[in-house]
Amino acid sequence: MEKKKQNNTVVTRFAPSPTGNLHVGSARTALFSFLYARGCGGKFILRIEDTDKERSKKEFEESILASMEWLGFSYDEMYRQSERTEIYKKYLQKLIDSGSAYISKEEVKQEGDRSEVIRFKNPNKTVTFADEIRGEVTFDTTELGDFVIAKDVKNPLYHFVVVVDDLEMGVTHVIRGEDHISNTPRQILIQEAIGAPRPTYAHIPLTLAADRSKLSKRHGAVSVEEYKKMGYLPEALVNFLALLGWNPGNDKEIFSIDELIKEFSLKKMQKGGAMFNFDKLDWVNKQHIARLDTEELFAKIKERLSEEILSLPQYSDERLKTILSVITERISKFADVENMAKEGELSYFFEQPTYEADKLLWKKNPDPLVAKQHLDKVVEFLGSIDADDFTQENVKKAIWDYAGEEGRGDVLWPTRFALCGRDRSPDPLALAEIFGKEETIKRLNFAARSLEDIS
Known about the structure:
- The protein is of the alpha/beta class.
- Among the domains are: 1-77 and 205-291, HUPs (Rossmann fold, 3-Layer(aba) Sandwich); 294-343; 357-452, Arc Repressor Mutant, subunit A.
- Helices cover 44% and strands 13% of the residues.
- The strands form 5 sheets. Strands 4-5-8-9 form a 4-stranded antiparallel sheet. The chain has a 3-stranded parallel sheet with strand order 1-2-3, with helices on one face.
- The chain is elongated.
- Residues 1-8 have low confidence and may be disordered.
């Protein structure tokens, strides 16, 4: 059924309404339309459906455009339905003149007045269309009656303008959510009445929450803008959305957008609803974070640090760069950096930590004098290492035998706590390399003096 046309003959479109920010479900629809067009060497059109004058807002349009740009969905043409009124008037008049539509005077509810609307004259026929995902679909249009296609010649409604736009813009493939299946028979009837060719339809499964209901705000963030603020990478969100209802037919899960363009096929779309799994999104994002180069990673982490962290006495860009791997091990999105800072997991990298001295004591041997002796001995061993060779490996060589003789917990616990002041932290040997010889010894001596007070 699926035929990938070449030489720009494939034209797809994404047609959001500027009545809200770009929903992730809508972004997924845009993605599939974009991937299909690009994979066929065709054209991808962005069409702003702003005929609802009361609900359409310029700020929402701007937000949609910004989200599309952030996601990397470049489009070849852009239109606004609000700027195409004259085109719609021409086609409305054509339908009226041919007898396929008529002006109907109808009573306005609650007012008792009568107003005119334009109704499509339903031929009451059975409509069958081929869907790239669902196969053959048949509707009896009799139950639709003569449906309204415009409030008047200056105010056409959704079903009518969609058909006119698809005709005028040369749309060959309509890729949209399955909730639009019931709209298709009306639109086919209008197509036939104005002599428009029937596009190829592909109705993709809806994005569902974990409880299999439609994804909404009660399940968490729903707009692309919110995911950007939470620190997800655009390439990761695109990757994740592509896997909702589509798979490449193998075990590969991490894709760049160029790889998706090459791999995407409507034949590999599933029919059932696609579950939006936040844990999976976090995993995909973490894989894409791992692909960033050092400078990109540094910039994205630094922009999430508060002025409070950046103004700590030992903060430097160089120090931050040394702990990038420590941070990335603990995050799945960049907002997690902010959470780490709030939980006190970052400040000790940039200032001498404060703590109660008894926290330095190893639980199996809580003797302050013994703990101090171990710290003093560690300082002695570390003092023999040249500052330029103060690596994790050399630190380990210097103290490992001693720690083995005295008890690793007895030696390494106070050493680690002296360096970070926290119950959980990276390996103390790694911390020593991060801080360097001078700062490491300074923190160990500070801890030893603290133990004198409770001896």
